[in-house]
Amino acid sequence: MLAAKYIPGEKKLSLKDVAIPEPGPKEVLLKVRAAGICHSDLHILSGEIPYTTSFTMGHEGCGEVVKTGSAVKEKFKDGVLYAVHGPNPCGECSYCKSGHDNLCNSPDRAYIGIGADGAYAEFMVVPARNIVEVPPGISPQVAAVATDAVLTPYHAIKTLGEVTHNTKVLLIGLGGLGMNGLQVALALEADVTVCDLRESSLESAKKLGAKKVFNSKFIEQELKPQSFDVVVDFVGRDSTFLQSQKFVRAGGTIVLVGLGSSQVPIVTASFATYQVKVQGSFWGTHKEMQEVYDLIADKKIKPQVQTAPLKEVNHWLEELEAGKIPGRMALIP
Ligand SMILES: [Zn+2]
Ligand SMILES: [Zn+2]
C-alpha cells in the first residue's frame, strides 16, 4: 500500500510502497477514507517539533474498520465511518480515567501520525478504543479534519473558555482552527468578535455569520480594552498574546491554542492587577469528539474542506506553508 513517511532530517515526506499492517490484539485495521493536513505537519518537517524516528504522518484520519484484533470485543459496523482520536490515550492512567484523556501520561503513548503511524496511507492500525463512530451524512473529508481542526477549537472555547450564551469572546486568527472556532462560538450563541490580518479570511468569516469582524491592524483603535470575557489566541505570537492581554476583562480568561512563537510575553502589572487567567489548550477528548460530530450532524458547524489525492501530499504541504489553502485540506488515498 501507499504510505507517506516522515524520515528524520528530510523536509519532504517519502512516498513508499509498504505492507498493509496487521492489527495487534486490541487494535483495528482501518481502510483510510480521508486524512486532514495540518500546520503541525509543517512544524515536524521543519524540525521545530523534532522526531528521531520514522513514521507515517497524518494525525487527522477516518476510515472503515476492515479487520479487528483477537481481543477486541466491540462490533464495528461495515461501511460506517470511524474517526481516529489522534491523542491516542491509554485509557488506564489517572488522566484517562478522569475524562482528561487528551492529557494521558502513559509512557507508551505516541500520537497517531505524530510519532506513531498515521493516516497518510491506504490503511492504518489504531487501538480499538481510540476510534469514534461518525454519524451518517458526514463526508470522510469533514470527519477527518474534525478530529483536530474542529475538536481543538471546541475544547479551547467550550470546555476551557467556558464560553456559553452571550459570553463576550474575541477570537484572534482565522486559519483552519480559528474559522471552525468561529462556528463553535456561534453554535454556543456567544457574542463573537473575530480578527485576522488577511482580508480574504475576514470575508469568509462574514459568510459564516460573524457580525463583528476586524482587521488585526486596526483593533487597537476599534475595540475597547478589557472588554472581553474570553480571548482565544489561535496564533500564539508576541503581538497576538499582547493583544489578548489588552482586550481580556479583569478576571477574564485567555485561552492559548496557537504555537506561533516558542515563548510569549506576559505583562506582569496587568496580569496580576486584573487577575487574568491564562489557560493552555491541547487538542480534545474522546467525549468531546462525539459532541463535535453531533454539532456537525446538526449542521451547526460546517467545516470547509478541499480534497486532493494522497500522492500529492508534498505539493499540498507546500501550499499550506505558503498560506494558499483557505479552510482545510484532506487527502484521499
Ligand atoms: Zn492537526
Ligand atoms: Zn492514559
Automatic annotation (TrEMBL):
Instruction: State the CDD domains in the record.
Output: hydroxyacyl_CoA_DH (cd08254)
Record SMART domains: PKS_ER (SM00829)
Q: Does the keyword Translocase apply?
A: no
Q: Name one GO molecular function term.
A: zinc ion binding
Q: Which UniProt keywords apply?
A: Metal-binding, Zinc
Q: Which cofactor does this sequence's record say it needs?
A: Zn(2+)
Family annotation (PANTHER family) = D-ARABINOSE 1-DEHYDROGENASE (NADP(+)), L-THREONINE 3-DEHYDROGENASE
- Tell me which family the UniProt entry assigns to this protein: Belongs to the zinc-containing alcohol dehydrogenase family.
What protein name does the entry list?
Alcohol dehydrogenase
Q: What is the native source organism of this protein? A: Bacteriovorax stolpii (Bdellovibrio stolpii)
